[in-house]
Design goal:
By secondary structure, the chain is mostly helical. Helices cover about 50% and strands about 10% of the residues.
């Protein structure tokens, strides 16, 4: 019998780790990385995750509980399974946030959303890397660059990302129709679009000052 289907996430004040430490913790162990990828697919208990990963249940349960206590995942209630109470979890549900909504959000709320997105991308990437999926994919696309942009350039990049996202949604819809008609399972493919200000301005033209020469 299932109990409490309402998703619950640890409030910030009750979490064991701050946002940055929680993110580093979440992707710092293979079991946690794989658990995050599994929970992104839907509701699962530590027992189910252990079965998928073929790992010890108590070990997996400890990792999953730490993820929950750090605010990395949501609890979605309990269920009696073969006379025992199992706790179920899932990835934190992410709402669609418009540009207008985002600009009106306080910075702390923005950090929460950004942290979850970065966590998901890192977890999915590391899980695929460890599973040997990246190097065996002949159609892989991994591109990144560091662009010096003025304000107009930043707006142009934003517009390009929006066009790319809209095109991806069109591809997704058409592909779903083709899969439904063909009966194929398809290949689940992770696609991410990022654009943000770098933590550092970039390598200076004259290079870096060697550590021993710093005043």
């Amino acid at each position: 019998m299932a109990k409490s289907a309402v998703a619950e996430r640890r409030p910030p004040a009750e979490r064991k780790r701050g946002l940055e430490d929680a993110l580093a913790y979440a992707v710092g162990h293979r079991i946690r990385v794989d658990a995050l990828a599994i929970l992104a697919e839907g509701r699962h208990s530590p027992n189910e995750i252990a079965g998928i990963l073929r790992k010890n249940v108590s070990t997996v349960a400890r990792h999953v509980k730490e993820l929950y206590d750090s605010g990395c995942i949501e609890s979605v209630g309990t269920q009696q399974v073969r006379g025992a109470t199992e706790h179920f979890y899932r990835a934190v549900a992410m709402p669609v946030i418009t540009d207008k909504d985002y600009r009106e959000m306080p910075h702390e709320a923005r950090r929460e959303v950004i942290g979850l997105i970065v966590q998901a991308i890192m977890a999915e990437t590391l899980a695929s890397l460890r599973a040997g999926k990246l190097e065996t994919d002949d159609d892989i696309c991994m591109i990144w660059d560091c662009l010096p942009l003025d304000q107009e350039g930043r707006k142009e990049v934003l517009a390009e990302r929006v066009r790319s996202y809209e095109r991806l949604q069109d591809i997704k819809a058409k592909n779903a129709n083709r899969l439904a008609q063909s009966g194929e399972a398809g290949t689940t493919t992770i696609v991410s679009l990022l654009g943000f200000e770098r933590s550092r301005p970039g390598r200076p033209e004259s290079g870096y000052t060697p550590l021993e020469m710093e005043s």
